Amino acid sequence: MLFRIQNDLFDLGADLATPERDEPLKFEALRIVESQVARLGPRSTT
User: Fold this and answer.
1) How many CB atoms lie within 10 A of CB 32?
2) How far apart are alpha carbons 16 and 32 in whole angstroms?
3) Number of domains in the chain
4) In the chain, what is the greatest distance between 2 CA atoms, to the nearest angstrom?
């Protein structure tokens, strides 16, 4: 589970470091997907 969280956070960092632009990139940018957002989202502990 820790590996998955670490990987999701790495993907999130890559996504944030490559903002969307009007001109196409020379590579396919890594983007975080909805399932990763759901796993990383806040959880209630009560």
Assistant:
1) 17
2) 9
3) 1
4) 47
Q: φ and ψ at 14, to 5 degrees? A: -65, -40
Global confidence as pTM: 0.70
**Residue 36 belongs to domain spanning:** 2-40
Instruction: Please tell me what DSSP assigns to residue 28.
Output: P
How many residues appear in the chain?
A: 46
Assigned domain for 19 exists:
yes
Encode the chain (46 residues) as per-residue pLDDT tens digits.
889 989 999 999 999 999 888 888 888 888 999 998 888 887 655 5
Q: Is residue 45 in some structural domain?
A: no
